[in-house]
Design brief:
There is one protein chain. By secondary structure, the chain is α+β, with helices and mostly antiparallel strands. It has 2 domains: 197 residues, FAD/NAD(P)-binding domain (3-Layer(bba) Sandwich), CATH 3.50.50; 216 residues, 3-Layer(bba) Sandwich (FAD/NAD(P)-binding domain), CATH 3.50.50. Helices cover 34% and strands 20% of the residues. It has a 7-stranded mixed β-sheet with strand order 5-4-14-15-16-13-17. Helix 1 runs parallel beside helix 7. It is globular. Pfam families: Trp_halogenase (PF04820). This is Tryptophan 7-halogenase. GO terms for molecular function: monooxygenase activity.
């Protein structure tokens, strides 16, 4: 390694986020000395506690060398096709938000343009019924994607059993020679340039490293000691309390259930041996609710300290963004890893990209609350998205948006946002021709669930513990 290369990394927080960072850095930089301070879990660190992920988790696992089949057999995860929305918007029919392709373009004409026209004319079924994952989720079926078959054009996420997933990450980190030590944050020693010279643990132990990661949760004592600035999003994201509970195992289901309401929303996520239940709301009365302060740290990377997970951005669990943003931040930090001087140019680029990604996720959640009829402050960035889409069904995907365009379009259409006018390109496809093509497509998709097993049966075939 060069004289200016980072040689040591200390991570505050031994939960899922901290161990994800440890495994990723150790895998990418084998000569790096990585240590994890295993602090007491923070109940408000949602990325460490919640069962949800997005489909990007597969890419992260591939990068760190975590085998999905092993996770499934260990009962640490089960596949999830998407989310079943009920009463969202209020009184709306049930709809599914799933991963993967919906429909097929007609030449250069996007499918959603043709669907929107047919929908206004009363000739199109629900949007999710034009996707493989959608018809499987609605039928309670599952199969892993199979290249070269009709089951190739969809994706899926994972439900995680937090304690087992954390154990799998810990085993992987240990195999990569990551050092773990118990401790609690006690303070820092500053360098002359303002960075951290040493992390002090309660009891006086001193930890020196070239780079530090705060993965300890939303209190972020290490990151806050350098840069306390925080951008509050509570005017846009109205719910700041989460009640978590568990129920006995329920019927196996490839989709999580999301139920909307004016006073909050509820979710149910079936896992091996239990069902995780949650209620997201704004009632600050008595109880054991987990407090959420929606917003982001203004500068997630300051000098030689990087905030990740809930230490960097706090969101409620709608669409399970918490672990997704943490693991995205880890890979971004590795991609932009500077030398030991942590040059301001590289740090500024990390912060620009991290903040833009977090803001886009905020807008995605805000879209749902706006369509639920809640009186929220609409960010200008979301207003632009809605203006373009409501006008002619156009959507402009931004570089730092880690949500695919299909994810946004599925949410917009599922939430009932229809273009007011047809795009000129779509107008060139005769309505009757488009309707006939959609009917044929729907017939083919409707036949697919009969070819695959029920979700519970598939889990059993894969040696996954029964849900």
């Amino acid at each position: 390694m060069s004289d200016r290369a980072i040689r040591s990394l200390a991570i505050l927080g031994g939960g899922i986020v901290g161990l994800s960072a440890a495994a990723a850095f150790a895998r990418a930089l084998p000569q790096l000395a990585v240590s994890v301070i295993e602090t007491a879990p923070d109940p408000a660190a949602l990325a460490d506690r919640l069962p949800g992920s997005t489909s990007t988790i597969h890419r992260f696992h591939a990068r760190i060398g975590l085998d999905e089949a092993t996770l499934l057999r260990a009962g640490a995860a089960v596949p999830r096709l998407g989310l079943r929305f009920e009463n969202w918007p209020a009184g709306a029919a049930r709809w599914f938000h799933v991963h993967g392709e919906h429909g097929a373009p007609a030449g250069n004409v996007a499918f959603h343009q043709l669907w929107a026209r047919a929908r206004r004319e009363g000739r199109a079924e629900a949007w999710h019924r034009h996707a493989v994952a959608g018809v499987l989720a609605e039928a309670g079926k599952f199969v892993h994607p199979r290249p070269g078959t009709p089951f190739a054009a969809f994706d899926y996420a994972l439900r995680l059993v937090s304690e087992r997933y954390c154990a799998a990450l810990a085993a992987l980190a240990a195999s990569l020679r990551v050092t773990g030590l118990a401790g609690a944050f006690g303070g820092i020693e500053r360098r002359a340039d303002g960075g951290v010279a040493a992390l002090l643990l309660a009891g006086g132990r001193r930890i020196e490293a070239d780079l530090y990661i705060d993965a300890s949760g939303p209190a972020a004592p290490l990151a806050a000691a350098l840069a306390p600035g925080f951008e509050d999003w509570s005017a846009t994201l109205p719910f700041d309390r989460l009640d978590l509970g568990a129920a006995p195992a329920s019927a196996a289901d490839p989709a999580d259930t999301i139920i909307g309401g004016q006073a909050g929303w509820q979710f149910a996520a079936p896992l091996p041996g239990k069902t995780i239940l949650g209620r997201v709301h704004g009632d600050r009365g008595e109880g054991q609710s987990i407090a959420i302060r929606p917003g982001r740290r203004s500068t997630p990377w300051t000098h030689n300290v990087v905030a990740l997970g809930d230490a960097a951005v706090a969101l409620d669990p709608l669409h399970w963004p918490n672990l997704h943003l943490a693991q995205s931040g880890i890979m971004r930090a590795i991609e932009l890893l500077p030398g030991r001087d942590c040059h301001p140019v590289e740090i500024a680029e990390y912060n620009r990209r991290a903040n833009a990604e977090a803001e886009r996720m905020r807008d995605f959640q805000a879209l749902h609350y706006l369509r639920l009829g809640l009186p929220i402050a609409v960010p200008n960035s979301l207003a632009r998205i809605l203006a373009l889409f409501e006008r002619r069904g156009q959507f402009v995907h931004e570089d730092e948006d880690s949500l695919l365009e299909e994810i946004w379009i599925s949410a917009l259409l599922g939430l009932g946002v229809l273009p007011q006018a047809i795009d000129p390109s779509a107008a060139g496809v005769p309505a009757e021709v488009a309707a006939a093509g959609m009917a044929e497509m729907r017939a083919g998709l409707a036949a697919l669930p009969a070819r695959v097993p029920a979700y519970a049966e598939y889990l059993a075939r894969c040696e996954i513990p029964a849900v």
